[in-house]
User: Fold this.
Amino acid sequence: MTTTPASPPVTALTSAYNVRCTLTFGDIYGQILIWMGVIFASLAAGLGLMGATRPIVALVGVGLILVLSLPFLLFAFTTTLLNHIAFEPKRQP
Assistant:
């Protein structure tokens, strides 16, 4: 009869750092206001062109502005979020 050696006890993986997010609403407030301004400006331009002879141009213009501005908004949000993630070393007891 053969016996297998005992395996070492499994310990929980611990990190030497605490992850903390320091993002506040004030950090993204300006970005939200600017993008809302872009939306309202494109809608105003679309409504202004709606009375023209080709209203489809107005709809395409509004859609194009919104589709092209969305990646810039997402990039601004993600970079702002990543800039506010802090790794703080844990204090040793």
About this structure: Residues 30-89 form one domain. Helices lie at 25-50, 55-83. The mean pLDDT is 80. The beta strands are 17-21, 85-89.
